[in-house]
Specification:
Number of strands: 0
Structural class: mainly alpha
CATH topology of the largest domain: Growth Hormone, Chain: A
Number of helices: 21
Distance between the termini: 26 Å
Low-confidence stretches: none
CATH class of the largest domain: Mainly Alpha
Largest sheet: none
Number of domains: 2
Order of helices and strands: HHHHHHHHHHHHHHHHHHHHH
Helix content: over 70%
Radius of gyration: 21 Å
Mean pLDDT: 88
Strand content: under 5%
C-alpha cells in the first residue's frame, strides 16, 4: 500500500507559509507577558492597572473569534489569513503613535487590534492546515505545524528579555517616584521607544508575509461560499453539555496559563530581591525561569501525546490538573526558590490541557465543529479577565497568595476531566 504523505509536494509552499503564522502568533503571545511588569514600572501603575495589557490583548481574541469564523466560512481560508495578518501588522505599527503620545491607553488599543488579527489567524490556520491533504494524515500535519508555535513563543521571550527588559532604564519603581517631572518624562519616553522597536519590527515582518501569501497560489477552501446556519448551529452547540462545559474549562485553563506565565516574573523578582539582587537583575533571572517553563511545557506536550495512546483523555486531564493544584500549593505556602521551582513545574501539567479540552469538546459535533471551534477560541477571554484580577490580589494581598486563582482554575479543569471520564465521552481519543 502506498504511503500517504503528511504534506504532499503540491502544497509544501502553502504549508510552510501558514506554519510560519503559528510561530508568529506564539511570538506575540510571549513577548507580551513580561510587558505587564514593564508598563507597571514605566507608568508607575499598580499591578492591576498593568494587567490591563492582558485584558486588551486577550480581549481581541474574544471579540473576533466568531466574526472570523463566519468570514472564513463565507469567503476562504486565505482571505481570513490575510485579514489576520493585516490586523496583526497594523497593531504592531500602532506602537509608533502610541509611544509618541506617551500614554498607556493607546498601547492597549494597539494590543487589541493586534490580537483581533491573531484571532483571525488561529481560527483559520488550524483547520486550513488540516485541509491541506489527506484526512488520514491531518492530525500529523497539524501537530507538525503546531510544533513551530512554541519556537515563536521562546523567541518572543528571548526578545522581551534581551531587547526590551535588559534595555529599559535600570531605576526601580521607588527611584522613579522621586524623579522630577522632566526627568520622569524623559525616562518614560526612552523606555517606551525601547518597547516600540520589537513590535514595529514584527509588524514589518508580518506585512512582508502578507504580500507573499497574497501573491502565492493557495489551496482553495472547499467550504467557501456556502450558506452558514449560524442560529441553528448555536442552538445545537448550546444543547451539548460536553461542549458547554468544555468552553468553560477552556476559559479557566487559558486564565491559569496566562496568570502563571505572566506573574512568574513578579514572583521571581520578589524572591530574588529579598536575596539581595537589584530589581533589574531579579527581573532578568525571573525571565530565564519563564523560558525554562516554556521548554518544560513543550517537552511535556510530546510526553502527553505519547501517554494519550494508553490513558483516556479525561483521566489524564484530571490527574494533570490535580498535579497542578499540588504544585501551586507549594507556590503559595512554601515560597522562595522551592516556590519558583513549583511554579515552573506547573507548565508540565498545563501542556496537554488546551488541545485535550479542544478535542474533547468538539468530538462528535460534525459540521457544527466549525463554529464550535470559534467558541473555544472565544474562551481565551479567560486570559483577558483573570490576570487583572490576580494583579488586584497582588496589590491587596501578596504575590504568593494571589496564586489561589490558578488553583481555582485547575479545580474547574479537574472537574471537567472527571465528568468527561465518568459521564460524557469516556473513550474520546
Amino acid at each position: 500500500m502506498k504511503k500517504i504523505p503528511v504534506v504532499s509536494s503540491q502544497v509544501v509552499v502553502p504549508f510552510v507559509l501558514i506554519t510560519i503564522c503559528f510561530a508568529l502568533w506564539g511570538f506575540a503571545n510571549d513577548i507580551t507577558n513580561p510587558m505587564v511588569k514593564a508598563f507597571s514600572k514605566i507608568f508607575l501603575m499598580s499591578n492591576f492597572q498593568g494587567s490591563l495589557v492582558q485584558f486588551a490583548f486577550y480581549g481581541g481574541y474574544f471579540a473576533m473569534a466568531i466574526p472570523a469564523a463566519i468570514f472564513i466560512k463565507k469567503y476562504s481560508y486565505k482571505s481570513g489569513i490575510l485579514v489576520g495578518l493585516a490586523l496583526y501588522a497594523l497593531g504592531g505599527l500602532l506602537f509608533i503613535p502610541a509611544s509618541m503620545v506617551g500614554e498607556f491607553t493607546p498601547f492597549l488599543f494597539a494590543y487589541f487590534i493586534l490580537t483581533c488579527g491573531l484571532s483571525f489567524l488561529e481560527t483559520g490556520a488550524n483547520p486550513y492546515i488540516l485541509s491541506m491533504g489527506d484526512e488520514e494524515t491531518s492530525t500529523q500535519r497539524l501537530n507538525l505545524a503546531q510544533a513551530f508555535n512554541p519556537i515563536g513563543s521562546l523567541t518572543g521571550m528571548l526578545v522581551a528579555g534581551q531587547f526590551i527588559l535588559a534595555r529599559l532604564d535600570p531605576q526601580d519603581y521607588e527611584a522613579r517616584q522621586i524623579l522630577s517631572p522632566e526627568q520622569f518624562e524623559a525616562v518614560k519616553m526612552a523606555d517606551l521607544a525601547v518597547i516600540r522597536a520589537p513590535y514595529v519590527g514584527i509588524g514589518v515582518v508580518i506585512a512582508v508575509l502578507f504580500i507573499i501569501i497574497f501573491l502565492v497560489k493557495m489551496p482553495k477552501n472547499q467550504d467557501a461560499n456556502t450558506k452558514l446556519d449560524v442560529g441553528g448551529t448555536f442552538k445545537r452547540l448550546l444543547s451539548s453539555l460536553k461542549y458547554r462545559e468544555g468552553v468553560v474549562a477552556q476559559a479557566f485553563y487559558v486564565g491559569a496559563q496566562i496568570m502563571c506565565w505572566t506573574f512568574i516574573i513578579h514572583y521571581g523578582t520578589e524572591v530574588f530581591t529579598a536575596r539581595g539582587m537589584t530589581e533589574k537583575a531579579a527581573e532578568g533571572l525571573s525571565l530565564n525561569y519563564n523560558i525554562a517553563a516554556m521548554v518544560i511545557f513543550v517537552t511535556s506536550r510530546f510526553i502527553c501525546t505519547f501517554l494519550l495512546r494508553f490513558i483516556r483523555p479525561g483521566v489524564l486531564l484530571m490527574n494533570f490538573a490535580i498535579a497542578g493544584i499540588m504544585l501551586l500549593m507549594g507556590v503559595i505556602f512554601v515560597g522562595g526558590l522551592p516556590g519558583i521551582y513549583c511554579l515552573v513545574g506547573v507548565s508540565a501539567c498545563m501542556s496537554l490541557m488546551f488541545p485535550t479540552i479542544y478535542g474533547i469538546a468538539l468530538k462528535g459535533l460534525g459540521d457544527d465543529a466549525k463554529l464550535g471551534a470559534a467558541g473555544l477560541i472565544m474562551a481565551i477571554l479567560g486570559g483577558s479577565l483573570m490576570p487583572p484580577l490576580q494583579g488586584y490580589l497582588i496589590d491587596v494581598w501578596t504575590v504568593p497568595a494571589s496564586f489561589v486563582l490558578p488553583v481555582i482554575c485547575f479545580i474547574v479543569i479537574a472537574t471537567y476531566g472527571y465528568r468527561v471520564y465518568k459521564f460524557h465521552y469516556a473513550r474520546v481519543t
